[in-house]
Amino acid sequence: MEIKRQGRRVNDRGVESEKTLGRNIKQASQKAGIHKRVTSHIFRHSYATHLLQNGIDLRSIQELLGHKSVETTMIYTHVVAEMNKGRVVSPLDI
User: Fold this and answer.
1) Is the pTM of this model over 0.70?
2) pLDDT at 2
């Protein structure tokens, strides 16, 4: 379903279009002086990774991301485990 908001077409999720969203993200990242590639998917991936790093349970993340299968969400556990390599110190090593 599409509606018009201030003369612009907007879908039922409040997003004008994926192209428009991508263009807005690109423009905002350029204005912010970010020289890395920034996309809506990268935001989504970063969001899930940060949630997991901050102790949010996998099922909650699965629900937030709309994944049908927890196995899809488990991809982020591997990312976080890789990021934490070398940071985790055994109490026996202290």
Assistant:
1) no
2) 40
